Amino acid sequence: MSLLESLLTIVLLIAASSFFSIAEISLAASRKLRLRQMVDEGDARAGLVIRTQEQPGEYFTVVQIGVNAVAILGGVVGEGALTPYFSGWLTPWLAPETAATVGFLASFVLITSLFILLADLLPKRLSMAEPERLAVLVSRPMQWLTALFKPLVWLFNWLANRLAALLGLPTVRDDRVTSDDILALMEAGARAGVLAAREQQVITNVFELDSRTVASAMTQRDRIAYFLRDDPDTVIRARIAAEPFSTYPVCDGDIDHVVGYVDAKDLFQRVLNNQALSLADDALLRKVLIVPDRLTLAEVLEQFRLVHEDFAVIVNEYSLVVGVVTLNDVMSTVMGGLVGPTDEEQIVRRDENSWLIDGVTPIEDVLHALQLDALPHAEEYETLAGFLMVMLRRVPRRTDSVTFGGYKFEVLDVDSYRIDQVMVSRLPQEATTPQTV
């Protein structure tokens, strides 16, 4: 074989090895979501790639047969083709035996380097950069090769499956998409600048609807504006003026005996018609949705959908009212800082290392603000005030503090046993164990 023929053979072997490298990496790196988009756009080859990903055994068997066969042939051809030329060039300066040895090593290094660079590194980098496009390009040729080498493919695939079963190894790829996968994808998108940080937070909040209880978004009992059934016209008008809301619970005697709710629009309609406001009129009352405080926000949304309401009263296991929640409260939780209520923010960052936080702030929001994974005894409370009570094992007083996770939680203001404000400060050195003062 002449030098030109040998070099041409080596080039063809490198091209064949590159093809198998591209086939291997592009299939493994192809994203099923992108492939399905290509199918929708009319590319039938993308459908073939998806089916191959579901059963990749025969495909990778062909790849390995091709890669190993080409590598062996490359070594044989390269050694036989180039070693004599290198040895001949070195003979004038070296002894014949030494020239033969050095010629062999030079041929080996050159052929190996060409295969590593052109048949391995470069094709695999291209395959990682454009996996779907390259996967569909090689899908048909790989299908033909699978049919051509069917007996060998069947034999090696059968042996590989038996060995995997013997070792207890999985043979089918798990393509289930979990919420963690989606959140990781959103985080990668935010880091790449494709997704805004606030948009990423909205998506994260949506997934948290299944884990956050309704208590984290409700209006607390002591902040509920409500009417008694026998309130006179003047009291109703005064309360609407002092506490303007869209919906008011109506109670019989006290807040724990809710008989319905009244929509502010119905009251305004009567005012415009110069009619007296009386809640004894059943025509004004609407049936109220009562939900337990253990429901998640996702479950509350489902309740709203089923009864076509956007307002609910929250009760505990003793049938005592603990708060009210509206559809707007739930959506505000999802939207976070994009669109928020006109009330004061519950978490105010004072500087690089300190925050002023309302005691009724949901613990999930506190964790987000402080970038903490969890707080101790998380199942026993839902707000920052609850965390302090659990850690102190008593009703907190002003200046009480708890240290955990490198932060100091100090009570600044208490109003009738209710924790109003908490100062959270980042400590210079992270505390290893919780401390209470």
Mean pLDDT: 83
Proportion in β-strands: 5-15%
Number of domains: 4
How are the strands ordered across the major sheet? 8-9-12-11-10-13
Keywords:
437 residues; alpha+beta; CBS-domain; 4 domains; 6-stranded antiparallel sheet; 15 helices; 53% helix
Structure description:
By secondary structure, the chain is α+β, with helices and mostly antiparallel strands. 53% of the residues lie in helices and 15% in strands. A 6-stranded antiparallel beta sheet has the order 8-9-12-11-10-13, covered by helices on one side. A 4-stranded mixed beta sheet has the order 1-7-6-5. A hairpin with a 2-residue loop joins β11 (407-415) and β12. α4 packs antiparallel against α5 (96-129). Keywords: CBS domain, Cell inner membrane, Cell membrane, Membrane, Repeat, Transmembrane, Transmembrane helix, Transport. It is found in: Cell inner membrane. This is Polyamine export protein. Belongs to the UPF0053 family. PaeA subfamily.
Provide a quick synopsis of the model.
The chain crosses the membrane at residues 6-29, 59-78, 98-122. With 437 residues, this protein is of the alpha+beta class.
Can you lay out the helices and strands and say which pair or pack?
Layout: H1 3-29, H2 32-40, H3 44-54, H4 57-90, H5 96-129, H6 131-148, H7 150-167, H8 179-192, H9 197-208, E1 219-220, E2 227-228, H10 233-242, E3 247-251, E4 258-263, H11 264-272, E5 289-292, H12 297-307, E6 311-315, E7 321-326, H13 327-335, E8 347-351, E9 354-358, H14 363-370, H15 384-392, E10 401-404, E11 407-415, E12 418-426, E13 435-436
Parallel strand pairs: 2-3, 5-6
Antiparallel strand pairs: 1-7, 3-4, 6-7, 8-9, 9-12, 10-11, 10-13, 11-12
Helix pairs in contact: 1-4, 1-5, 1-6, 2-3, 3-6, 4-5, 4-6, 4-7, 5-6, 8-9
